[in-house]
UniProtKB/TrEMBL annotation, chain A:
This is Elongation factor-like 1. One of its GO terms (biological process) is cytosolic ribosome assembly. Keywords: GTP-binding, Hydrolase, Nucleotide-binding, Ribosome biogenesis. One of its GO terms (molecular function) is GTPase activity. It holds the Pfam family GTP_EFTU.
UniProtKB/TrEMBL annotation, chain B:
Its main location: cytoplasm. Residues 109-170 form the Ribosome maturation protein SDO1/SBDS central domain. SUPFAM superfamilies: FYSH domain (SSF89895), Hypothetical protein AF0491, middle domain (SSF109728). It comes from Oncorhynchus mykiss (Rainbow trout). This is Ribosome maturation protein SBDS. Residues 172-239 form the Ribosome maturation protein SDO1/SBDS C-terminal domain. Keywords: Cytoplasm, Cytoskeleton, Nucleus, Ribosome biogenesis.
Length: 1103, 250
């Protein structure tokens, strides 16, 4: 077949009945790209000699080097069967688990799928995954059993054995399909039950859903009622092809049925039914009989099909019998060029013969055209699924939207049909590869500029849409025919024509037309994933998630090449240029605002491998940020974010995916040197109640401590009493504070953390209050605050916490964290944090304001000291969590009295400064005291801050201190046989299994576990490796957890000495973490530089 | 074999000498290398891991052992272990290679950590990571001075880094309350010290929320205290004005 011209393809595109959109799915290395090669070769794009070796669709360099596909790529092929011409839009997809997002993008655009299974390896984890994906997207699969040559050449099976082997594989595949079907039926029934109940409540039972309510308790009904015979793969159904893509042959039963029906005089239909299965040929009677297995006869398939192939391989490859080959070629009617037959490698000859005898492309393409649906045959079920975003049911969508369903069904290319396009991903194309080479390359800077501009324009545009839509008002709310929509678009400011910009790479959208005709330069609406058609139709001013853009150019995707097109009719796969400003990763485009966005792509693997990325040269930071933005757009699965710590984090699906992303960043997007490292892991510090038992679970009370730990150096300004109260005096001896650290109950910590925003509002209000302003708070916030207060009161009970809630002085760090500063100073009255609440209620006190402004000076210093102390704890300078600092003493002894501290310090100051009498001239003395306050230790407020901070830290250290680690909840789906290994990996990484249950209707187990974030680096990769990819974890941050071991622990009791020895150098998890953080921060780490002194060397030669 | 390098010459390859002069005499002890600092910091608790031998020398390399009389005269005891401990604690020592290296490394990191804590990226208002600062410090060939405090050096580094990367000290957010009559005058004085004035409210007193460079804090504090005689006040709203929360790049 010659090269198909562009015109031909254009003509073919117009007839959707003869268009097939399909993708090739399989486990990694089962031969997807090789098969695609054979199909491409059939169109004369590459030489058939190179098919299988070239891997034409693997256009990236690293794909060729690694030998795995990393992206999905499309190509349009022409296939003539009989007098019918078909257009095949073929999408090759990657098989590696890291790139399953690419599979999702491919599957979405297709109507059918070729699932390939390796004849030797059988069903592999990814095979199951892709079958599931195809199933979820409602597309029809056909099966290709590939690499049959390996059965002959590697496993040396006889044809009989090979037959049983193939049967087994087929059973495996059907088992997977079956289990998918069962789980779906079960699920459906559950949904139906729910809906039926809902409907009953609503009072309008739709006739279509009525049967659901009857089935509620009928467990068997669901499975038996649903017909599943169509689902399974069976050669006699014609949806299975046996192939060896590398040798270029493949066949379906039909082909052999036809060949043999002529030769044996048995009708083709009969042969077709009996060729696969337990049938044998009774030579004498010339009859086909049942029960080959029982009678020990060769099944028909072995006799008529496999034996022929086996003997061919035997003759050509094994024995190299020239004469026999000649004879076989004669009988097959195959002519081989002398160059091939003389070739020293028998494989060349073999593929030359086979590709003429049983060309794989013919077999596969015939099956595809025959069995897979055309865009016209899209099931209404699939359309409804696509259009029902979230949990919304199709029937609840607006009426106009429901009408669009018919547009889907008709798939018409009329001008009146609404245009519906789905973009599943954006990919980068070298501008040189674009057909319109007029475009000069664009530098990175300009591109970013353009993006910036576009973003601005985008917002403007949004605003404009809102205006026009509100302006046009109800005029077009009734009808959504495309006739009115252009008018609506007229009002939108047009995108400025790209000026003389130079670009090296552009984004092309990988898309498919579902309805209508897409023309170059056409303007369409872009629906964001959260767009709600009801809002768009109502024409209310704010229409979120809706934009408008122009399709600058349309391309026919031909693997690595693109052909420019003027228009693309419905039902085809295409590339669209000029969308990079409107479309981030995927989008729905339409001329009708009634269209809801399609349901988001269903990704099998969520991104979980996190790395921090930094440029080699710090000055290239902006380039990196730009590059990461581009990467985010180009990759459907990668996520990029900037963390609070300033780290740029890249989240990918797996190690291979990560490698590709890094390569892309280096070579295409950022073009700078970068380094990736383990991300910074946050910790929290806390105190706990003194433990009752020691490390060997002995009761502490009964034993005597052998060693004393926690020696706090006491100096003249610092005093520590055994109950944990720390008193500290400022360097100038004018103030003394006494602080005690108390662990907060866990629930309180949780509550405080959960209501950080609320506390921040409270703090702001309090701040305003002290200035005498009033900050308006909504009644809702007030109520929420009251609830928070009462909940705290409930949680903080007991003698220790009496009135604690009212005595709360501040929260920290940053004034809204999960730590509390408690005012327990006797006689010191200060408004609590809740003060403003009561004030809001109208209990205004006359003198409060004057008092408030008077105490602010030093009250604030205490709070600041507390904030500083909670921001970085003494263990490794990480924030504190769940600690309450109770200030129990606060004495100030100035030479002069400060009125606001009268109540506190009167006694002290009188006794100490008896000589200084109460001064009448307050103003003059205040100035004097200020003059004296600035002494050699700096301003007094600063000293107080430092003193409070130090006191808090010492108080913290006086209690048993612990580290808190961030935890992930980890959900792992695994099959029963790898369960043990999953547990092994979890155990090794300090994970803890919470629960494990079997998923209904499948043989998958769902394991829920928690895992420290610190141990998660490389976790996904390890678990995949250990389970051969049968378990896939998902990690989500869940909570903070106290690490039970004490970082400063040394054996103290006799039992501990016995158990751990004097050194106790067994692994201490908390110490390991703490030292890691300290080392990273350049803090002092208590460890020896060398463990043992080295021996004297007598070095005479090199001194 | 040349006569200049006799083979029987013993070189001490693993000996770190700790010296102390007391009572007009020089005392030395022989220790293992890279161990003395660990002993001083308390990480090493076993004296035998530190000392080569518990005898006290006048000169270690010559092998002259100190006389008992001298020892008891200088230290008031003849318990060698006690004397060794005293010399270890107070004597001057030669810092060994690994000790020095780890010391410099630690202070280098410490400086980087301080810089990272204090500074933000000018564009994004987000902090730089310590790693990046370290790399930038290496790029400008910053060498750590052992005798200067890390904080001092960090301020020096910030100044130098400004040339190569977009870095800036994170601003402090302050609230100033000035009495009305002083307000105008003071504002003029304060103006050069303030970076950004976020809000200004002038009714019965002048109230300003502004961002300042942390270096100017003391100056502002002083100015307000002195000029208003304690009537004006200043409050730190946040020590560091940085973006909070994670941001998704899109």
């Amino acid at each position: 077949m010659g090269h198909t011209s562009l015109d031909k393809i254009k003509a073919l595109q117009k007839n959707p009945a003869n268009v097939r959109n399909l993708c090739i799915l399989a486990h990694v290395d089962h031969g997807k790209t090789t098969l695609a090669d054979s199909l491409v070769a059939s169109n004369g794009i590459i030489s058939s000699r190179l098919a299988g070796k070239l891997r034409y669709l693997d256009s990236r360099e690293d794909e060729q080097i690694r030998g795995i596909t990393m992206k999905s790529s499309a190509i349009s092929l022409h296939y003539a069967s009989g007098e019918k011409d078909y257009l095949i839009n073929l999408i090759d997809s990657p098989g590696h688990v890291d790139f399953s997002s690419e599979v999702s993008t491919a599957v979405r655009l297709c109507d059918g799928a070729i699932v390939i299974v390796d004849a030797v390896e059988g069903v592999c984890p990814q095979t199951q995954a892709v079958l599931r994906q195809a199933w979820l997207e409602n597309i029809r699969p056909v099966l290709v059993i590939n690499k049959i040559d390996r059965l002959i050449m590697e496993l040396k099976l006889t044809s009989q054995e090979a037959y049983t082997h193939l049967q087994k594989i087929l059973e495996q595949v059907n088992a997977v399909t079956g289990s998918l079907f069962t789980s779906k039926v079960l699920e459906d029934r559950a949904v139906k039950e729910e809906r039926a109940e809902e409907d009953k409540e609503e009072g309008d039972i739709k006739p279509a859903e009525c049967p659901g309510s009857e089935q509620v308790y009928d467990w068997s009904a669901g499975l038996e009622d649903s017909d599943d015979s169509q689902l399974y793969f069976s050669p006699d159904q014609g949806n299975v092809v046996f192939a060896s893509a590398i040798d270029g042959w493949g066949f379906s039963i039909q082909q052999f049925a036809q060949i043999h029906s002529q030769r044996m005089g048995i009708r083709a239909e009969v042969l077709l039914k009996t060729l696969w299965g337990d049938f044998y040929l009774n030579a004498k009677a010339k009859k086909i009989m049942k029960g080959a297995h029982a009678k020990g006869k060769k099944p028909l398939f072995v006799q008529l099909v496999l034996d022929n192939i086996w003997s061919l391989y035997d003759a050509v490859v094994t024995r190299r019998d020239k004469e026999k080959i000649e004879k076989m070629m004669m009988s097959l009617g195959v002519k081989v060029m002398t160059r091939d037959s003389r070739h020293s490698d028998p494989k060349v000859l073999l593929s030359a013969i086979c590709s003429q005898w049983l060309p794989v492309s013919q077999a596969v393409l015939f099956m595809v055209c025959d069995k897979l649906p055309s865009p016209l045959d899209m099931t209404s079920e699939r359309i409804e699924r696509l259009m029902s975003v979230g949990a919304r049911r199709f029937h609840s969508l607006p009426l106009q939207t429901q009408e669009l369903k018919t547009a889907f069904m008709q798939c018409s290319s009329d001008d009146t049909a609404p245009v519906i396009v789905f973009v599943s991903k954006m990919f980068m194309v070298d501008a040189k590869a674009l057909p319109q080479n007029k475009q000069r390359p664009l530098t990175q800077e300009e591109m970013a500029q353009r993006r910036e501009l576009a973003r601005q324009r985008h917002t403007e545009r949004l605003a404009a849409i809102q205006q026009t839509e509100s302006g046009e008002g109800n005029a077009q709310s009734g009808s959504t025919t495309p006739a009115t929509t252009p008018g609506q678009m007229q009002g939108l400011p047009l995108k400025a024509k790209p000026e003389e910009e130079e670009e090296k790479e552009t984004f092309v959208a990988f898309a498919r037309v579902y309805s209508g005709v897409v023309r170059r330069g056409q303007k369409v609406f872009v629906m964001g994933p959260k767009y709600d058609p009801a809002q768009g139709l109502a024409c209310l001013p704010p229409v979120p998630h809706l934009a408008c853009c122009t399709m600058d150019s349309l391309y026919l995707l031909m693997g690595r090449e693109l052909e420019e097109l003027e228009e693309v009719p419905s039902g085809n796969v295409l590339g669209i240029g000029g969308l990079e400003e409107c479309v981030l990763k995927s989008a729905t485009l339409s001329t009708s605002p009634a269209l809801p966005p399609f349901i988001p792509l269903n990704f099998e693997a969520t991104p979980i491998v996190r790395v921090a990325i930094e440029p080699k040269h710090p000055s290239e930071m902006p380039k990196l940020v730009r590059g990461m933005r581009l990467l985010n757009q180009a990759d459907p699965c990668a996520e990029v974010l900037i963390q609070e710590t300033g780290e740029h984090v890249l989240v990918t699906a797996g190690e291979v995916h990560l490698q590709r992303c890094l390569d892309d960043l280096r070579e295409r997007f950022a073009k700078i040197e970068i380094s990736a490292s383990k991300p910074i892991i946050p910790f929290r510090e806390t105190v706990i109640r003194p433990p009752k038992v020691d490390m060997v679970n002995e009761d502490l009370g009964k034993q005597q401590k052998v060693a004393v730990i926690h020696q706090v150096k006491e100096s003249d300004t610092l005093h520590l009493d055994p109950s944990g109260l720390v008193t500290l005096t400022t360097p100038n001896r004018q103030a003394t504070v006494g602080v005690r650290a108390i662990p907060l109950p866990e629930e309180v910590t949780l509550l405080l953390e959960g209501s950080a925003d609320l506390i921040r509002t409270l703090e702001q209000a309090g701040q305003a209050q002290r200035e005498g302003r009033t900050l308006d708070m909504s009644t809702w916030t007030l109520d929420a605050l009251m609830v928070l207060k009462s909940r705290l009161e409930v949680l903080l009970q007991g003698r220790k916490w009496r009135n604690a809630v009212d005595r709360i002085w501040a929260f920290g760090p940053r004034r809204y964290g999960p730590n509390i500063l408690l005012n327990s100073v006797e006689g010191y009255q200060r408004p609590s944090v809740w003060h403003c609440l009561e004030r809001e209620k109208g209990e205004k006190e006359g003198g409060a304001k004057a008092e408030a402004s008077a105490i602010r000076d030093f009250d604030n210093s205490v709070v600041s000291g507390f904030q500083l102390a909670t921001l970085s704890g003494p263990m490794c300078e990480e924030p504190l969590m769940g600690v309450c600092f109770s200030v129990e003493r606060w004495d100030m002894n100035f030479p002069t009295q400060r009125t606001h501290l009268d109540s506190v310090t009167e006694k002290d100051s009188n006794s100490l400064d008896a000589s200084v009498s109460e001064s009448p001239g307050e103003g003059a003395m205040a100035g004097a005291s200020h003059g004296r306050l600035v002494d050699c230790y700096g301003p007094f407020s600063g000293q107080l801050i430092a003193a409070v901070k130090e006191a808090c830290r010492h108080a913290f250290q006086a209690k048993p201190q612990r580290l808190m680690a961030a935890m992930y909840t980890c959900e792992i789906m695994a099959t029963a046989e790898v369960l043990g290994r999953v547990y092994g990996v979890l155990g090794k990484r300090e994970g803890r299994v919470l629960q494990e249950e079997m998923k209904e209707g499948t043989e998958m187990f769902i394991i829920k576990a928690v895992l420290p974030v610190a141990e998660s680096f490389g976790f996904a990769d390890e678990i995949r490796k250990r389970t051969s990819g049968l378990a896939s974890p998902q990690l989500v941050f869940s909570h903070w957890e106290v690490i039970s071991s004490d970082p400063s622990w040394v054996p103290t009791t006799e039992e501990e000495y016995l158990h751990f020895g004097e050194k106790a150098d067994s692994a201490n998890q908390a110490l390991k973490y703490m030292n890691g953080v300290r080392r990273r921060k350049g803090l002092y780490v208590e460890e020896k530089i060398v463990e043992h002194g080295e021996k004297q060397r007598t070095l005479s030669k090199n001194k | 074999m040349s006569i200049f390098t006799p083979t029987n010459q013993i070189r001490l390859t693993n000996v770190a000498v700790v010296r102390m002069k007391k009572g007009g005499k020089r005392f030395e002890i022989a220790c293992y290398k890279n161990k003395v600092m660990s002993w001083r910091s308390g990480a090493e608790k076993d004296l035998d891991e530190v000392l080569q031998t518990s005898s006290v020398f006048n000169n270690v390399s010559k092998g002259q052992v100190a006389k008992k009389d001298d020892l008891s005269k200088a230290f008031g005891t003849d318990d060698l272990t006690e004397i060794c401990k005293e010399i270890l604690a107070k004597g001057e020592l030669q810092v060994s290679d690994k000790e020095r290296q780890s010391q410099l490394e630690t202070s280098f990191r410490d400086i980087a950590t301080i810089v990272a804590e204090k500074c933000v990226n000018l564009e994004t208002k987000r902090p730089y990571t310590v790693n990046l600062i370290e790399r930038a410090m290496k790029d400008i060939h910053y060498s750590v001075k052992a005798n200067k405090s890390t904080k001092q050096q960090a301020l020096e580094v910030i100044r130098q880094l400004k040339d190569s990367i977009e870095i800036q000290r994170a601003h402090m957010r302050l609230r100033l309350v000035l009495p009305a009559k002083e307000g105008k005058r003071l504002k003029e004085k304060l103006k050069p010290l303030l970076k950004v004035v976020e809000s200004e409210d002038f009714d019965d007193q002048l109230e300003m929320v502004c961002l300042v460079d942390p270096g100017c804090f003391r100056e502002i504090d002083e100015l307000i205290r002195c000029e208003t005689k304690g009537k004006g006040s200043l409050e730190v709203l946040s020590l560091k004005d940085v973006e909070e929360g994670d941001e998704r790049l899109e």
